[in-house]
Amino acid sequence: MNLTWNLDSLYTSFYSEGWKADRERLKHHIHALNEWADLSLNDRSQPSTLIEEFLKRYNGFKSVYACLSCYLELILSADSRNTEAMDMLDDIECEGADIVNVCVIFNKWLNSIDGLDEVIDRSPYLMEHRFYLNELLRQSKYVLSEEVEVVIARLQSTGSKAWQRLYMNSVSNVLVDVEVEGESRRLSLSELRNMAYDTNSTLRKAAYHGEWEAYRDIAEVSAACINGISGEALTIYGMRGYESPLAKVLASSRMDRETLEVMLSAIKESLPAFHTYYLKKAQRLGHTASLPFYDIFAPINEGIKVLTYAEARDCIVDSFRTFSDELADFAQKVFDNHWIDAEPRAGKGNYGMCVDIFPIQESRIMTTFTGSYTDVGVLAHEIGHAYHSSCLSGEKMINTDYPTPIAETASIFCETIINHELLKLAPTEDGISLLERSISDAGYYVVDFYGRYLFENQLYEKRQHGTLSVEELNELMLACMQEAYGQSIDPATIHPYMWINKVGYYMAGNEFLNFPYSFGLLFSKGLYAQYKKQGRDFVARYHSFLSATSKNNIVDAAQLMEIDVHSLQFWRDALALIAEEIEDFVNRA
Predict the structure, then answer these.
(1) Average pLDDT for residues 300-305, to the nearest whole number?
(2) Which among 364, 366, 371, 368 is positioned nearest to 309, based on CA atoms?
(3) Do 382 and 411 form a contact (C-beta atoms < 8 A)?
(4) Mean pLDDT rounded to a whole number for the chain
(5) pLDDT 10s digits, 35-57
């Protein structure tokens, strides 16, 4: 089977007529929108008409910009060495910055309109955008003057976004000599990371130390990148009036602090259960004490089945069909239409990713497929993201943005479906391995991400007082990982450079890409428990819930499924489901 994606429904190349036409369309949209704003946004006599006109023009701009930028993002994700795509992305982002002035002017103009709800009620088109408009008002207190916002947008292309690209290029292209089966091989970080799941313990350890060596070689560059990105975030968010980068993330995630604090409290309570799991895994793998970090993802059985890509496809589609024909048919379409790039190769990012291209109602998925059950779970996860976006089909561009924590719900829900079905379908001898893998994945989202959250929180606190050296970053990461993993992991083996292998720290403008995954895991566990009780009656409600996520905050979206995210008990109950799996594993292992 072909393991690479097809991007032709976007563009066939940078020289295609479609690409050239959209480049011109983008310039036209930017010029026309700026000209319209200068002429129209001094008038308050016809607010309904003017708001409609802005939204239609802005939706038009967003559609073209999304196609161009998504194409470039996909090209670079698959090949970080493509300098032509990198230069073009710089150009697109610089052009996109020219729209910032209009958005700021419109935001301030909108804030001056009295009785906005009554204005919206007079227009069916505006009623479709009510949530978006009210969000603009809510966020308006964080918007600076037009001149300052334009300067910020322009400087970011040579600031945080340039640091991000330098980091991506560094980690994608570093190569390390590692001994594999008696031969020295030069491997990429992506290949080394995949060895963490290998059945050969000697190879896992060699790959781990090879990765350690690779990160040491790019540590100074990575430290400059993380300092540059975090320093810019502190400066800009401080200027805008946010209490902290975390406060900004919560606001943009439509998530209140109470939800975060209640969830984190439940996670902290649950850590001893995970520690029990890691210690039992250490025992199963033959370690006399705690688990070495290089074995944290190790399979517990050597003979576990390896799947072909075709088998993985069929497994996913069949498993999804147990939930709904709609989900299964969607997954089949993803494979048939070559929306996935799953081929392992140098220069390709070592992460799973789904890019939703709303203007053409398609998505593209990037993974690295090696045949493990874990790879099947990653595919299911990313297809879940794509399915979520398909539930928003027909929405205008500015109504397709949903909170990151909710974004991780559909993906992890799909992972849960595949994990439960794999447990039924796998050979008996693989059953305990799959149970362990499910717990391992949960531990990654809960324990590891808790440590990463602690690190990022403290990074911003310390960054306020100056840049952090490689040694300081290492010490901070080690301390946070030890707090999360406790005595269950051998502290001498914890990776001090984990701040380099977590791409989320370098995603400019997307800070704290850690707790949303914990939210997604636990929220999806709660949803899956509802599904097991309600059966088919749940499916339609779930689809409606996903369709509504772009027009609700997290509290209200959760209430659509009768879930109170302020309830400590809800999070405890979700974590208790994982604790039951841990108890089962401990008894069987």
Answers:
(1) 73
(2) 371
(3) yes
(4) 92
(5) 999 999 888 888 999 999 999 99
Cα–Cα distance for residue pair 423/438, rounded to 1 Å: 10
Of the listed ranges 239-243, 263-267, 501-505, the least confidently predicted one is: 501-505
Pairing of strands 175-180, 362-366: unpaired
Cβ neighbors of 258 (< 8 A, separation 6 or more) are 566
Residue 176 is given by DSSP the state: E
Q: How far apart are CA 339 and CA 348, in angstroms?
A: 16
Specify whether the CB–CB gap between 87 and 16 falls below 8 A: no
The pLDDT score that the predictor gives to residue 232 is: 98
Contact 304, 430 (CB under 8 A): yes
Read off the pLDDT of residues 148-194 as tens digits, 9 standing for 90 and up.
Answer: 988 998 899 899 999 999 998 898 888 888 887 788 889 888 788 88
Task: Give dist(CA 574, CA 150) in Å, integer.
Answer: 44
- What is the C-alpha separation between 163 and 505, in angstroms, rounded? 11
Token readout for 296 is: 């944290």
Q: Please count the other Cβ atoms lying within 10 Å of the Cβ belonging to residue 211.
A: 25
Which ranges of 289-398 does DSSP label H, i.e. alpha helix? Answer: 309-321, 325-336, 373-390
- 304 — pLDDT class (breaks 50, 70, 90): low
- Sorted by sequence, the CB contacts under 8 Å of residue 580 that are 6+ apart come out as none
Q: pTM of this prediction?
A: 0.88
Helices (H), 322-369: 325-336
And the tokens for 468?
A: 């952090």
What backbone phi and psi angles, to 5 degrees, belong to 175?
Answer: -125, 145
Residue 334's nearest CA partner among 319, 350, 316, 349 is 316
Amino acid at 131: F
How many angstroms separate the CA atoms of 81 and 30, rounded? 30
Instruction: Please give the backbone phi and psi of residue 498, each rounded to the nearest 5 degrees, phi first.
Output: -65, -20
Q: Give residues with Cβ within 8 angstroms of 336, minimum separation 6.
A: none
Q: Quick one: pLDDT at residue 515?
A: 95
pLDDT of residue 310: 96
CATH placement of domain 17-158: 1.20.140.70
Contact partners, residue 256, CB within 8 Å, separation at least 6: 250, 553, 554, 555
Could you tell me if 301 and 428 are in contact, meaning their C-beta atoms sit under 8 angstroms apart?
Answer: no
Per-residue pLDDT averaged across 429-437, rounded? 84
On whether the CB atoms of residues 218 and 170 are closer than 8 A, the answer is: yes
- The DSSP line for 230-292 is HHHHHHHHHHHT-S-HHHHHHHHTT--HHHHHHHHHHHHHHHHHHHHHHHHHHHHTT-SSSBP
Whether the pLDDT of residue 378 is over 70: the answer is yes
Alpha carbon 247 to its chain's center: 19
Coil, strand, or helix at residue 369? coil
d(CA 11, CA 58) in angstroms, rounded, equals 22
The pLDDT-based confidence of 434 (bands split at 50, 70, 90) is confident
The answer to whether 564 and 570 are in contact (CB under 8 A) is yes
3-state secondary structure 23-88: HHHHHHHHHHHHHHHHHHCCCCCCHHHHHHHHHHHHHHHHHHHHHHHHHHHHHHHHCCCCHHHHHH
Q: Residue 586: count other Cβ atoms within 10 Å of its Cβ.
A: 17
Interatomic CA distance for residues 500 and 223, integer angstroms: 8
